[in-house]
Write a structure and sequence with these properties.
Blueprint: E1 2-4, E2 18-21, H1 29-45, E3 49-55, H2 58-62, H3 74-83, E4 88-93, H4 96-99, H5 103-114, E5 119-123, H6 136-146, E6 149-153, H7 168-176, H8 180-187, E7 192-196, H9 203-206, E8 212-215, E9 225-233, E10 240-249, E11 260-265, E12 276-287, H10 294-313
Parallel strand pairs: 1-4, 2-3, 2-5, 3-4, 5-6
Antiparallel strand pairs: 7-12, 8-11, 9-10, 9-12, 10-11
Helix pairs in contact: 7-8
Length: about 325
Amino acid sequence: MRVFRHYRNLPQTARRAVVAIGNFDGVHLGHQAVLARARALADELRAPLGVMVFEPHPREFFAPQAAPLRLMTLETKVRHLKELGVDFVYALDFNYELSRMAAPDFVQEVIVDGLQTVHIVIGRDFYFGRDRSGDSTALSYMGEEEGFGVTVLDAVRDEDEPDAEYSSTRIRDALRAGDPERAAAMMGHWWTVEGTVMEGDRRGRTIGFPTANVDLGRLLHPRLGVYAVRVEVLEGPCEGTYGGVANVGERPTFGTSDVLLEAHLFDFSGDLYGTAISVALISFIRSEVKFDGVAQLADQIDADCDSARRILAKVAPAGGSAVATSCK
């Protein structure tokens, strides 16, 4: 799969695709239904399958000071889209120029001239163009005029809650409530924090619980606290999946306030600094609290590890992959 950060001067092999358009934040079960329909159309038309997303998320562009909301980085999103059989991702730079482009100009410049799209697949709530002036009805009409097909899909109902639809907003609400299991049921996969392990203050190592620390960046902040996690080391000699326990929070015991994910991998021995990892939140264990001292914190972490091991023993690894036990 190839990723393009532009729509002009694309190679001919990346044009004339069936293209699903949206933010696809979380690549949840509703998104997957859109992609499945687009895949079927691509096969029918003997065309490649493309996905158009916008980076940064438009809500981040218009409200950069707002609390982080995104469920996935672009890199995580691309990985999921690749697993779903997408051939091309057009991750368009959502900047001032694109935000002010009128709806007819967007269709002409991006969809027709740039991508030479043969068919578009969107959800019924898709809007585009300056001030969200274009909708699915307008796009269908423009498609008839310009010679590309348009398929508009209704939102997919949640199997567990038939009165509700799968949506990124509901997934965010579940994570903020400390319910990663519910979020995973709507996504079809665990919610993960992916990033490069950064240098920390090494406090965990001094009390017997070394951690791999990852900055959440612009990712949504879930409910602060301790979680049972699966940690996938994505590269290097320790590559594999490990059980663990993680704190997502401000670390009040040490007087800090920036939100950080600190994951302790069970039965692990290895150096992960500078290594890309993916931490899946499996189950919420407890809220973050301030302890009277390091000894009390260490006792609680030991209890948290016991809780996490019991939880993880009941949860099959994502995709049926084996869980590593050590890395020397």
